[in-house]
Amino acid sequence: MDVSKPLTAEQTAALDALRRDVLADPKFGPLAHSDDTLLRFIRARKFDVEKALEMYLKHLEWLQEFGMDDLVETFQLTPEEAEATRRFYPQFIHGADLEGRPISWQRFGKLDWKALTAVMSAERVIQDVMVRTERTVRYKFPLCSEKYGKKVQTHISVIDIKGVSLAQLWAMRSTMGRIMTLLQDNWPETGGPVLIINAPWGFSTFFSAAVRPLMDEVTAAKIAVFGSNYLKDLDAWIPQENIPVSLGGTCTLCPQGCEVSDRCP
Are the beta carbons of 107 and 161 closer than 8 angstroms? Predict the structure, then answer.
C-alpha cells in the first residue's frame, strides 16, 4: 500500500476507531500510541479495525515480553559477536536513498551459519535483528524525516547474493523463518523496495517465472533484480556516496568501515 497517499474519509474513520479501541484497553490504553504506528497496523489489515486491534495488542504484549524498551537503550553485541556478525552474517544500515529512506544492506553471499552460531546463539541473532529494527523505526525514521523534510516511514533493502550458498540458507531456515514472522507481526508496512544485486546469470528469469507469480502484486512490485553491473542501476535509487565502499560506492565518511558505521542519514 502506498503510504504517501492521503487517507480517504473511510480510512480516517477506521484509524479513529482503532485509536479509540486501543485507548479503551485496560492494560495498554494508558501507554503512548502514535498515529504513525497505528496507521501501519491498520494498513497491514486493510483497514479492518477488529483485525488491526488484535494485531496491535499482540504486538504490545510481545514488546513487553521481549523487554524492548530496555533493550533498545542497552543492548549491544560483545566484541566477539560483533566481529562474527561482520564476517559471517553482514547486515547493516548505511546511508539513505534518494527518497530519504534508511538503507539496509544484507550480504547473504558471506553467510556462514555454522561459524556464526559457534560464537553466538540463534536467540542472540534474533535479538540483534529485532533491536536493530526497532532502533531504525524509533530513531532513524525521525532523523531522516527531519533531514529530508518529509515523513519517512519505510526503509529500502539491498541484498547482495554474490556467492550465496543454498546450503547456508537451508541451515539458517528455522531462524530466518522466525525472524521473518516477527518482523511481519511487529513492524508491518515498514519495508520499501528490495534491490537484489550480483544476481547470477539466469536468476532474474527464474525469479520472474517461478517466484514473482507466487507473490501478491504489491510485494512483487517492490523487488528489482540486478546483475554484477548493479552500480549503474542503483543510480536510480541511491547516491553513490551512500553505497558502501566494499560494494563499489564512494562513501568517505566511515573511517572504521561502512559495515560498522551505522551511518544514517
Answer: no
Q: In the 8-state DSSP scheme, what is residue 191?
A: E
Question: pLDDT per position in the chain (265 positions), as tens?
Answer: 556 678 999 999 999 999 999 999 999 999 989 999 999 999 999 999 999 999 999 999 999 999 999 999 999 999 999 999 999 999 999 999 999 999 999 999 999 999 999 999 999 999 999 999 999 999 999 999 999 999 999 999 999 999 988 899 889 989 998 999 999 999 999 999 999 999 988 888 877 887 778 777 777 888 999 999 999 999 999 999 999 999 999 999 999 999 999 999 8
Closest of 239, 245, 255 to residue 103, by C-alpha: 239
Phi and psi at 213, nearest 5°, equal: -65, -20
Angle, vertex CA 265, rays to CA 87 and CA 76, nearest 5: 45
The residue type of 233 is D
Q: Where are the alpha helices (DSSP H) in the chain?
A: 9-23, 35-44, 49-66, 68-74, 79-88, 113-117, 122-135, 141-148, 166-171, 173-186, 203-206, 217-221, 230-234, 258-261
Q: Say if residues 241 and 249 touch (Cβ distance below 8 Å).
A: yes
Q: Rounded CA gap, 75 and 179, in Å?
A: 18
**Phi, then psi, of 99 in degrees rounded to 5:** -95, 0
